[in-house]
TrEMBL record:
Pfam family, one: NMN_transporter
Species the sequence originates in: Faecousia intestinalis
Major subcellular location class: membrane
Presence of the UniProt keyword Metal-binding in the record: no
Taxonomic classification: Bacteria, Bacillati, Bacillota, Clostridia, Eubacteriales
Family membership: Belongs to the nicotinamide ribonucleoside (NR) uptake permease (TC 4.B.1) family.
UniProt keyword Cell membrane, yes or no: yes
Membrane-spanning residues: 12-31, 37-54, 61-80, 124-143, 149-166, 173-192, 198-218
Membrane topology term: Multi-pass membrane protein
InterPro entries for this protein: NMN_transpt_PnuC
Gene: pnuC
Protein name (database record): Nicotinamide riboside transporter PnuC
Compartment(s): Cell membrane
Keyword set, alphabetical order: Cell membrane, Membrane, Transmembrane, Transmembrane helix, Transport
Length: 231
């Protein structure tokens, strides 16, 4: 598998979408006044990770590991313990696991892109049970930590775990899982921005992530149809 150039599979429209997203993220951060380097770097890393994930590139998961660390630090500063615990204690190890599974399962006809896997009924049942168990555990912890906006924080845990699990399982529906999580996160950071406008760029960043996750879903569905036809 070739990991030397993860951008090799990107076409002109991919480059335009990616670079345009980076520009919007950068402008939104600078327009906010005092630029927070941590927020800006996290956003640029996240956008790049999602762009490469849409192309099925394993390198996306390495960038996601970095993003989890940065976002965990940002969440800690606002006392969004749910986000911090979710990304450092759940999304981070699952991103590592996803990197391993993606690297071991590439599609020969798609170069270095990961092979897409169809979920079975057993997979879906385990997903539901695992999501319920993780949500209940983290919900209890968040309540004990007096987390701000508790309801949305618990919903973020559920959608984040589901999205990370679908990514690890190499399902084309991973994009929809993250899109649902993005919507919750936009709400969370808009609420945070009401107390401190410095967090407005974070809300904007997740709005950009939302478009990328929908793009990832459509891209994987297209590859899934192509793989079915050539099987």
């Amino acid at each position: 598998m070739n990991l030397n150039n993860p951008f090799a599979s990107m076409r002109a429209r991919d480059w335009a979408f990616w670079l345009g997203s980076l520009a919007v993220v950068a402008v939104s951060n600078f327009l906010g006044g005092d630029v927070d380097p941590l927020t800006l770097i996290a956003a640029l890393t996240g956008v790049t990770a999602l762009m490469l994930a849409a192309k099925g590139q394993v390198f996306a998961q390495y960038l996601m590991i970095v993003f989890c660390l940065l976002y965990g630090a940002i969440s800690c500063r606002f006392r969004y313990w749910g986000e911090m615990l979710t990304y450092l204690g759940m999304s981070l190890p699952m991103a590592v696991w996803s990197a391993v599974t993606w690297r071991r399962n590439t599609a020969h006809e798609a170069g270095s892109a990961v092979a897409i896997r169809r979920l079975t009924g057993r997979d879906l049942a385990l997903l539901v049970l695992a999501t319920a168990a993780v949500t209940a555990l983290f919900g209890w912890l968040l309540a004990a930590l007096d987390t701000p906006n508790l309801g949305f924080s618990i919903l973020s845990v559920a959608t984040s775990f589901l999205a990370a699990a679908l990514t690890m399982l190499r399902s084309s529906y991973y994009g929809l899982g993250y899109a649902a999580n993005d919507i919750v996160l936009v709400v969370l950071w808009v609420l945070a921005s009401c107390e401190d406008p410095a967090y407005i760029p974070v809300a904007v960043n997740f709005g950009i992530f939302l478009f990328h996750d929908f793009y990832g879903f459509l891209s994987w569905k297209k590859r899934e149809r192509h793989m079915a036809q050539t099987a």
